[in-house]
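User: hey, got a sec? need Conserved putative membrane protein folded
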Amino acid sequence: MTIGKGRKIGTVAVCVLAQLLIAIDLTVLHLVLPSLSEQMHPSTTELLWIADAYGFALAGLLITMGNIGDRVGRKKLLLIGASLFGVASVITAYAPTAELLIAARALLGVAAATLMPSTLSIVRNVFTGKERAAVIGVSSGLTILGFGMGPLVGGFLLDHFWWGSVFLVNVPVVVVMVIAGALILPESKNPAPGRIDVVSVLLSIAGMVGIVYTIKEVAYKGWGHWDVAVAAVLGLGCLLAFVLRQPRLAEPLMDLKLFARRAFSATVGTTILAMFAQLAVSLMFAQYLQLVAGWSPLKSGLAGLPGMGGAIVGGVLAPMGIKLFGRAITIGLGCALSAIGFALYSGIGVTIVYTDLLAAMIVFGVGLALILTVATDTVLGVVPKARAGAASAISETATELGGALGIAVLGSALGALYRSELVIPPGVPPEAISDTLGGAVQFAAQLPPDQGALVLANAKLAFVDGLQVTMLCSAGLMAVLAVSVLFTLRGVPKVLEDPEEEAAPVAAPVG
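Assistant: Yep! Here you go:
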């Protein structure tokens, strides 16, 4: 597809705007929950569903929406999804009950599932080779910046307006995106689309939601609950049935032959493992800065901006790294920098030293952007344009799964370490402070000053000890990944030519 330079710049701007919208919305909710709870008084179960409905809908529909975009047109799907995102944002902002709020958050997740694969597949069809790598580098860096902007935007709005304002602010952004997208974005789709298999759609949704639900619930309350067991069996069973069904279909929802391309399967696997380690950082350090250091959400968000700046630098440097060293070494370098960042994070103490934190977050941000930029460009570059939506959806699903697993597994590990290291003062009921650091902080505020100070000091020390061990384990994982990608991605060419659907056997190794 050949379009002018101005239109290409406009295309990048619209796609980055969509990614920023999703990134900010993913991170802003955690700030909203306290004030939302005070005003709406949801039950504990309702509060969990308010937090998770978005992620369930997003994870469950990514593969389906990527395929729909390939068939009906990526531009059309993006514009529909953006409009739906705006409508759902208004409903969320003015939701009068917890039940309607949960439904609105699910609708936001559906809309986000249309936007994420659409933006990547549009980039895949407009840009090729080195140009595509540069565009993905810039957009990846800006998207990571969006994750850092969420707490800033949310903190500012919550200081001046009611909780719904953090969702209502999406509306003008959506209006600009829809108008600009309608005028600028080129349309593209699979020239020979087949019918979508409804059974595969249902299996993929049930499987992904079941797995993500299981991961989240295990992180919240552990095993041993009937709903977790049912979700695990349902999720695994549906995903197994989905995988077994695909090879028998003339037009599969997920083309498993894509995984026969070594560059594709290795990069997807790398993305899952990298995000496993990376996504836990934002959750853990939000707790560290606010509950240990005692900083406000706004100050915590400002403190993380240098790391976001490092991510932008990494995104810009990624295409240069591909050109100089190749894809395997560049991703390996990103993993090594992330490992160093984790190792530096492990040196934090109860008393915060921001300069030490600053070095860790910059190194970590550069490494994360190198990994995501090169991984995304590789996944898109080794598949035909006609399958860009499906490939983008697989890439985004890998990111979602890796992040969910990281938060669940590493978050649970941190919780277990906290409980094992916690020293409970005499006369303090263990159940009041042994669950989470947040619970200990709230309980300590109700005690006499001397006893409260002791409880708080012990809880902070136990949390930091657990955090240090978790960071060291994450550093080890990234170090191992840095070495493994040198072998799994060996031979992948620096510049990926656009493969045709039948140009070569799909099982042939790349490079």
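Quick note: Confidence is low (pLDDT under 50) at residues 501-511. Let me know if you need anything else on Conserved putative membrane protein.
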